[in-house]
Design a protein that fits this description.
Distance between the termini: 32 Å
Number of helices: 4
Number of strands: 5
Number of domains: 1
Length: 111
């Protein structure tokens, strides 16, 4: 389940380099999208408390969040497919279009 937070612009840059986070969706460096104002990543559940304290993350909902953390039990290997699914959940047309492009490329590669 995704958790929305608010972080300072400086902390967004630090979050992007945190080795305990696995960027996904718009923050996945392999995609053709990027945002300096938003950060999206997977995190192991047992790291969530530390991240909130270290980066001063405050829980937010709706359009107020600029950090979206997807807490899971264990980080699996990063894949383009997972990033594509995360992008497809977005209301942003560019993100949905990028999700479709990734899915097409993955399907063509599988043939």
């Amino acid at each position: 389940m995704p958790h929305g937070f608010r972080a300072s612009p400086e902390d967004l840059q630090l979050l992007a380099r945190d080795p305990h986070l696995q960027p996904t969706g718009i923050s996945d460096y392999r995609q053709h999208l990027s945002s300096h104002n938003l950060f999206e990543a997977y995190v192991q559940k047992d790291e969530m408390r530390r991240l909130r304290a270290e980066y001063g993350l405050s829980p937010q909902s709706g359009p107020e969040w600029n950090v979206l953390l997807r807490a899971i039990d264990k980080l699996p290997p990063a894949t383009g497919l997972r990033a594509s699914v995360d992008l497809a959940e977005s209301a942003d047309p560019r993100s949905v279009a990028e999700a479709s492009r990734i899915a097409r490329n993955l399907a063509e590669a599988a043939l």
